[in-house]
Write a sequence for this structure.
């Protein structure tokens, strides 16, 4: 395990030393703990802070002239005095650090950091390929602070005391924030109206063969806004928009904002149970729909009143500006995300945060007047909102790309080229499919100047492939959460980054990002901690959900009166001031770009008749697998069908396994690690591929689904094994288009699909 954070911008092989005098001898009197105990406690505190772990290991020189011996140190809750007594022999004999209280060991070993006492001075010997001189100075400072705190009160709770200097605190809380930017006293829809006045007859949005000018879009939005007001819409009244991604949807979104309402996106194909839960939780009174998009909504038991845009067009509403005053702190929208309690949670974001994010996108992605932005994301993704409105706000246009086009990668790439798209955002897995298409059928893409990836961690290998294929097109890694008004960090890349991981970049304007410990105190630079947010980006909380709001939203302890959001994500600062993502430590996962709380899936699982207990795990980051117990097994297809009645398709496990009981850890909790390994093993099948076509098909499935080929059976169903519409697109590309997307959806069983593959040869 890496104990010492790597902190140098110019790593070079070698060693160096840093020395600093001790304020006074350790220990000061014969009645206090021995020198080695005091120094060991300070060292344990420093290593725990640097590694982000309570349990650490160091190599301790036990006596003068002896070789270092590995010691386990526990820096859990307690006093400094308890910390002095925590050391015990054992642990990794190759630990990165050596502590020598006697100052006689020469440090000639492979330690990253060697700490010792020499004639009243603290000496650090460090590897220069890991640390630079300023990092060593900081770490020495941490040791001195810890020693001073022990001297001041050895019975104090060490977990409540910080090792960071005032200078480092100022640097993290002030200098690592996004640049300050004065926001205009305008709302997003008002900036759009300014553009309408400037060029009313320019094209604002395109959908297939249809296109609307700024004047037409504004007119339609105004009429929808007036129709909502006529039906009693109040300030911050929640309006669900249950529509496909079309021009009318765009007008409805603007209409809700213009009327002072709160936009709540709902995808028409979502299960009726989920739609009812979302509308009920949000306190929604009005729904905007269109002919053919309300079938599932009609099945949901809701109190909201439905307004069809088709009806609005026949009503005689004035299409002039509404003139409704909307404050910066007023709610703009609510997006529902997966919730661990079994119910989705609706993140509420205000107009100021919405505007701040949109302007950052326009600036960092280089969106200018006359340029085209592709709108590709589903309505339930918050990124769909900036994709929808950034173009017109900047004086450009929005290209609404239909789902059928997105699922046909060659057609999608052709569309991007033909429509002259300048800015595009996709999830990394889809960019991978686009690259595969471009490698087989190169296109010029002359207008495209920026591609953004978001929704899941982007691998460096994909970035390398991108710049090898398109060196002149910037790639932006965007990171953020729904609760923080979408993206908070942009890593704008013009070349492959040097780091092993692709960084998240620096915070955007007016956003403050901290990396903190459990007590919300900043951790040392380079150390892992929880990523939390402050500033205009932080939303108001979860709608009608005070308990979950209180758990995630609090007051910024460093800026009283301002909100702070705890993301649950873990990361660390890099020497260049950028943020690096390290993962999560809770039950929330990202699967194919979708944010999923495993607890929500498990709660739905427990509602299936016959299921007594259940757990859900993620296999290879690509698919969910469920395990159930009960009096007697329930058919896996029945379980999945019941889950599909209340969960979106992306949250339904691809496989369901029945067990007599679930494995438990020593403390009685479900052993998810064992279940994960079990899920891998249960993928193995006896009826493996037989013909050359089946073997080729299994190899392609393995590549796309992340399942070992020897665990794929000839009678397996592609979609039951975790396949999605995007995975089907990637499968077609992997097979050099020997089969079509229609073949995959119509013949999902491997043996059947392999017959088509053989006939195409």
């Amino acid at each position: 395990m890496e104990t010492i954070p790597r902190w140098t911008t110019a790593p070079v092989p070698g060693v160096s030393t840093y020395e600093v005098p001790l304020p006074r001898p350790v220990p000061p009197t014969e009645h206090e703990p021995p020198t080695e105990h005091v120094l060991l406690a300070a060292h344990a505190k420093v290593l725990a802070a640097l590694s982000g772990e309570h349990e650490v290991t160091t190599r301790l020189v036990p006596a003068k002239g002896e070789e270092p011996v590995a010691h386990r140190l526990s820096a859990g809750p307690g006093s400094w005095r308890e910390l002095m007594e925590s050391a015990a022999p054992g642990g990794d004999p190759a630990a990165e650090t050596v502590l020598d209280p006697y100052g006689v060991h020469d440090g000639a070993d492979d330690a990253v950091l060697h700490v010792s006492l020499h004639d009243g001075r603290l000496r650090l010997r460090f590897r220069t390929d890991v640390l630079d001189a300023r990092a060593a100075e900081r770490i020495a400072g941490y040791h001195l602070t810890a020693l001073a705190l022990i001297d001041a009160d050895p019975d104090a709770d060490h977990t409540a005391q910080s090792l960071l200097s005032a200078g480092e605190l100022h640097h993290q809380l002030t200098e690592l924030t996004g640049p300050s930017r004065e926001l205009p006293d305008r709302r997003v829809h008002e900036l759009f109206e300014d553009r309408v006045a400037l060029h009313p007859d320019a094209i604002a949005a395109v959908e297939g063969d249809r296109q609307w000018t700024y004047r037409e879009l504004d007119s339609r939005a105004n009429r929808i806004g007036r129709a909502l007001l006529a039906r009693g819409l109040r300030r911050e009244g929640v309006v669900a928009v249950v529509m496909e991604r079309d021009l009318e949807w765009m007008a409805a979104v603007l209409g809700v904002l213009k009327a002072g309402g709160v936009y709540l996106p709902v995808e028409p194909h979502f299960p009726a149970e989920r739609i009812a839960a979302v509308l009920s939780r949000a306190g929604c009174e009005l729904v905007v729909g269109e002919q053919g998009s309300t079938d599932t909504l009609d099945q949901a038991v809701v109190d909201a009143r439905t307004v069809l845009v088709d009806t609005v067009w026949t009503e005689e509403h004035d299409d002039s500006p509404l003139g409704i005053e909307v404050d910066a702190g007023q709610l703009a929208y609510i997006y529902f995300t997966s919730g661990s309690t079994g119910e989705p949670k609706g993140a509420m974001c205000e107009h100021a945060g919405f505007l701040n994010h949109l302007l950052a996108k326009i600036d960092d992605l280089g969106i200018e007047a006359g340029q085209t932005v592709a709108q590709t994301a589903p309505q339930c993704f918050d990124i769909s909102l900036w994709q929808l409105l950034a173009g017109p706000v900047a004086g450009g246009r929005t290209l609404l790309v239909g789902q059928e086009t997105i699922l046909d990668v060659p057609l999608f790439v052709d569309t991007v080229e033909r429509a002259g798209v300048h800015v595009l955002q996709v999830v990394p897995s889809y960019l991978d499919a686009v690259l595969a298409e471009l490698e087989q059928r190169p296109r010029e893409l002359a207008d495209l100047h920026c591609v953004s990836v978001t929704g899941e961690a982007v691998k460096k290998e994909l970035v390398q492939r991108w710049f090898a294929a398109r060196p002149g097109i910037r790639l932006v890694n965007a990171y953020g959460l729904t609760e923080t008004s979408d993206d908070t960090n942009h890593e704008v890349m013009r070349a492959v980054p040097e780091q092993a991981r692709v960084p998240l970049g620096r915070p955007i304007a007016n956003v403050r990002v901290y990396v903190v410990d459990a007590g919300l105190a900043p951790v040392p630079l380079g150390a892992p901690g929880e990523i939390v947010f402050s500033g205009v980006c932080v939303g108001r909380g979860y709608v009608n959900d005070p308990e979950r709001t209180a758990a995630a939203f609090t007051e910024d302890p460093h800026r009283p009166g301002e909100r702070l959001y705890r993301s649950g994500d873990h990361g660390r600062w890099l020497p260049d001031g950028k943020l690096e993502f390290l993962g999560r430590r809770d039950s929330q996962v990202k699967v194919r770009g979708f944010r999923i709380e495993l607890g929500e899936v498990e709660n739905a699982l427990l509602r299936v008749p016959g299921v007594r207990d259940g757990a859900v795990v993620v296999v290879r980051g690509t698919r969910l697998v469920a395990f159930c117990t009960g009096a007697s097994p329930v058919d896996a297809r029945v379980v999945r069908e019941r889950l599909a009645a209340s969960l979106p398709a992306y949250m339904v496990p691809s496989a369901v396994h029945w067990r007599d009981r679930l494995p438990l850890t020593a403390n009685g909790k479900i052993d998810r690690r064992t279940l994960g390994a079990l899920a891998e093993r249960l993928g193995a099948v006896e009826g493996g591929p037989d013909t050359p076509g089946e073997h080729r098909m299994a190899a392609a499935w393995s590549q796309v689904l992340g399942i070992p080929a020897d665990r794929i059976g000839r009678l397996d169903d592609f979609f039951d094994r975790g396949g999605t519409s995007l995975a089907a697109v990637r499968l077609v590309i992997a097979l050099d288009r020997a089969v079509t997307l229609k073949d995959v959806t119509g013949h999902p069983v491997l043996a059947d699909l392999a017959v088509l593959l053989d006939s195409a040869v």
Observations:
- Confidence is low (pLDDT under 50) at residues 28-33.
